[in-house]
Specification:
There is one protein chain. The chain is an alpha/beta fold. The chain folds into two domains: 8-106 and 250-281, Rossmann fold (3-Layer(aba) Sandwich), CATH 3.40.50.10860; 109-246, NAD(P)-binding Rossmann-like Domain (Rossmann fold), CATH 3.40.50.720. Helices cover 37% and strands 20% of the residues. The chain has helices spanning 22-33, 50-59, 72-78, 84-89, 108-119, 135-147, 159-162, 184-187, 232-239, 248-263, 271-283, and strands spanning 8-14, 37-43, 64-67, 81-82, 94-98, 101-105, 128-131, 151-156, 175-180, 193-196, 220-223, 243-245. The strands form two sheets. It has a six-stranded mixed sheet with strand order 2-1-3-5-6-4, with helices on both faces. The protein has a six-stranded parallel sheet with strand order 9-8-7-10-11-12, with helices on both faces. The protein binds 2'-monophosphoadenosine-5'-diphosphate.
């Protein structure tokens, strides 16, 4: 396809980025909406002059970019201006090049909340239990507090890694209690939401041992990994009559919010897109 001069560009910056599904998602929306744009994979090595790379991209016609591992903190430092979620998290997943400025935002938390809301709205008024304390956990914890969950419990194998995360919600009405990993099942008692942000349950990895018995009726169980898509945790949730939300929901919804930032239109989040992603995951 030949490039027209006014063609807008966006892309994903990471290292590596070859595994990313973002090009599939965004180029699908670009085609569907008939935009004159393209979304690229942009491998940027960890030791690159990150701000310099962004300036080159802006000159080359990029309207913005997604940012993934290991550059989310670099993007935070490189931005001229930050939206509140990015400011709070110290991490940027979406850059917008606008009027000579580099603006950083973070759509991970809002994408996570949108994915839960697609399934049910009945999770805000009950306690929530989060397992894990990695990069994604921070966005999820802050988003839950902002969405109105008052009682949040956070359990991680390494307790000391979870403890500093409490500061993220210090300015909210929510409380966050750190739970010893051995006590996670007791902490699930009456929870309306369980989120697994650990790497347990991923393809080829160790299993997550977690009884769902104490959860409230109709609770939502979410796994943020999507390889496999249907984890043992989600299978167990469905078998127990709970609401299972897989990792594609957050992936698609954070992408939709980024897309809207650059192109000014909210793209369709529909079953056809999910089906394309599921097929792609099956092939790789
Ligand atoms: P990230 O890249 O998001 O920072 P990570 O370092 O790979 O994620 O860790 C993901 C999460 O899975 C962490 O919360 C990790 O717990 P620790 O902080 O104790 O390392 C958790 N995790 C990984 N393997 C685990 C295991 N075998 N048992 C319990 N938790 C585990």
């Amino acid at each position: 396809m030949s490039e027209t001069p006014d063609r807008q560009r966006a892309g994903i910056i990471g290292w590596p980025v070859s595994h990313s599904r973002s090009p599939l998602i965004h180029n699908g929306w670009i085609d569907q909406l008939g935009l004159n744009a393209h979304y690229d994979s942009c491998p940027v090595s960890p030791d690159a002059d990150f701000r310099g790379v962004l300036e080159v991209m802006a000159r080359a016609g990029f309207v913005g970019a997604n940012v993934t591992i290991p550059h989310k903190e670099n993007a935070y430092r490189a931005a001229d201006r930050l939206h509140p979620a990015a400011e709070k998290l110290g991490a940027v997943n979406t850059l917008h090049f606008q009027d000579g400025e580099i603006i950083g935002s973070n759509t991970d938390g809002a994408g996570f909340v949108a994915a839960l809301d697609e399934a049910t709205q009945d999770w805000r008024d009950k306690p929530a239990l989060i397992l894990g304390a990695g990069g994604a956990t921070r966005a999820i914890l802050a988003a839950l507090a902002e969405a109105g969950v008052k009682d949040i419990r956070l359990s991680n194998r390494t307790r000391a890694r979870a403890e500093p995360l409490v500061d993220l919600i210090a300015d909210s009405d929510a409380t966050c209690r750190i739970i010893d990993w051995q006590a996670r099942e007791d902490a699930a008692e009456h929870c309306g939401l369980l989120v697994n942000t650990t790497s347990l349950g991923m393809q080829g990895g160790a299993a997550l041992e977690m009884s769902l018995d104490g959860l409230a009726d109709g609770a939502v169980v979410n796994d943020i990994v999507y390889a496999p898509l249907e984890t043992d945790l989600l299978k167990a949730a469905r078998a127990a009559g709970l609401v299972a939300v897989d990792g594609l929901g957050m992936l698609i919804n954070q992408a939709a919010l980024s897309f809207e930032t650059w192109f000014g239109v909210r793209p369709p989040v529909d079953q056809a897109l999910r089906d394309r992603l599921v097929a792609d995951l099956g092939e790789h």
